[in-house]
Each structure stands twice: as structure tokens, then as C-alpha cells.
């Protein structure tokens, strides 16, 4: 799924309203992939399923240079996701059974890059008697899941879930811009994504062996930046009440893996990894004047590995000889 949702106003354009002006972009894509493979045989049953989901979309608002907007209240907003609908939902299921051998393999691979951005060009002017709100809000959700089950005299399973989310939320405002509001001024970039992987692997037989892997990677740039202005063409921001300029990351990411076997000889192995990387930035460039009753400038990182209600990791083996090996790891940078 590729493309963009965009609202734009061209160079040297002027918009006047006696009431509200809204320039918004809303992207709420949904991609569901379900694949099931089942093999049952008198002798040998083999099943393998691979699914891949790639989502690359943008939600963007762009005001080109020298744009003028005048109204009572002005809203400029780019949003992706609503916090409930999943931009990518990738689920792979494989089952295999045989009197002699049952073997399954599954791979669920998900890549998502849904960016939100607001770009306001050089020397643009926004004037209103009420409030001005310039925001980006990325609330995309995504998950990658696999389930594999094998039954036979010898039962083998290998199941893998991968998810890589590189979606961003950014506001860029050019030099020489003027924003004058009668009440509140809000300029805020928010990232509140949710990314998860889930792997279930099971096998039953005289000899049973399963291996599972779940890896989630969430990378986010959350940024508000005002470009440098010149001394003879300064940027001006003014509000009669509060002025808030903020970058906020509230992303959640997690993984879960369950590898279980029952057999006279059983071996279970699993690897679970969650990696989060968050860069936040609020930059007010050179030659900028900001005046308000109260001023709040803040970069706040609340990215967290959370979301799974149960344990991240369960590796179990049962039988006369049972071996269970597992590693679960979390990285945040």
C-alpha cells in the first residue's frame, strides 16, 4: 500500500474567512493479510506459509511560500491513524500432521512507514482573533503474528514474526513567518504509535522440536522546527494567552512468544526482541520573536515497551527428555 494524502495551498495564495479556517489531512489506511496453510498426510505432512505487508504512506499539509490565512480560528493538521484501526495486520497460520512426520514453517514480515508532516513556507502569515493550532498526530497501529502447530511421530516447527515501523511526525516552519493569534497558539508534533509481534509455536510427537522468533522494531522522529530567519525579516509568533510548542512521543511497542512441545524427547527454543528508537527535537531558529502570556516549550519522550498483558516469553517442554531455551531482550535508544 503506497501513496499520500495531502492538502496544500500554493505560493502567494490568500485565504480569508469570517469564522474558522481548517487545512487538514487525515490518513487512516487499513491492510489486513491472513494466510492459512494446513497439510495432513498418512506419512509426511509439510506446511509452509510466508506473508509480507508493506505500507508506505504520507499524511501531509503544505503551505507554500508567502501564503496568507486570516480567520477567527485557524487549524492546520496532519493525522495518520485513529488509535484503533490497524494500518497493518499480518497473520500467518500453518498446521502439519503426519503419521511419521509433521513439519511446519511460518514467516510474517511487516514493514510500515506512515509519516505525518506539516510544512509552512517562508514568509507566510497566519492571523486570527481566536486560536491557532498547527499539529501533526501519528496514531498508527500495526502487528505481525504467526501460529504454527505440528503433530507426528516426529513433529517440527519453525515460526517467525517481524515488524519494522519507521513512521515519523514532523512540523517544519520556514523563515520570516508571522503568526498572530488572539488567544492560544499551539504548535505540536505527536507520535503515539503501537507496534507488536506475536509468535506461537507448538509441536507434539515422540520427538518434538519447535523454534520461534518475534522481533519488533519501532523507530520514530518527532520534531518541531522553525527555520532561521534574517535580522531584517524576523519570524514573529504572538498569542494573547498561552503559546505551546511541543514534540511528544508516546509510542508503545512489544513482543510475545510462546514455544511449547510435548514428546518423549522435546526441544523448544525462542528469541524475542523489542527495539525502540526515539529522536525528539524542538528548534526555534535564529531571529525569531515569541510573545505570549504563558510560554511552554517542551520535548517529551514517553516511548515505552508495553502492550502485552501476559508475559513476553514462554518456552516449555514436556517429556522424558525436555530442553527449553529462550532469550527475551528489550532495547531503547
List the main descriptive attributes of the protein structure presented here:
0% helix, elongated, 333 residues, 77% strand, mainly beta
Structure, described:
The protein has 333 residues and is mostly beta strands. Helices cover 0% and strands 77% of the residues. The chain contains no helices and 25 strands. It has strands at residues 2-9, 14-16, 20-27, 32-41, 44-63, 68-71, 73-80, 86-120, 125-128, 132-138, 141-165, 169-173, 178-181, 185-191, 194-204, 207-226, 235-239, 242-249, 252-262, 265-284, 288-291, 294-301, 304-305, 313-318, 321-332. The strands form 3 sheets. Strands 1, 4, 5, 8, 11, 12, 15, 16, 19, 20, 23, 24 and 25 form a 13-stranded parallel beta sheet that branches. It has a 6-stranded parallel beta sheet with strand order 2-6-9-13-17-21, with no helix packed on it. The radius of gyration is 26 Å and the shape is elongated.
Briefly summarize what is shown.
With about 325 residues, the protein is mainly beta.
Topology:
Layout: E1 2-9, E2 14-16, E3 20-27, E4 32-41, E5 44-63, E6 68-71, E7 73-80, E8 86-120, E9 125-128, E10 132-138, E11 141-165, E12 169-173, E13 178-181, E14 185-191, E15 194-204, E16 207-226, E17 235-239, E18 242-249, E19 252-262, E20 265-284, E21 288-291, E22 294-301, E23 304-305, E24 313-318, E25 321-332
Parallel strand pairs: 1-5, 2-6, 3-7, 4-8, 5-8, 6-9, 7-10, 8-11, 8-12, 9-13, 10-14, 11-15, 11-16, 12-16, 13-17, 14-18, 15-19, 16-20, 17-21, 18-22, 19-23, 19-24, 20-25
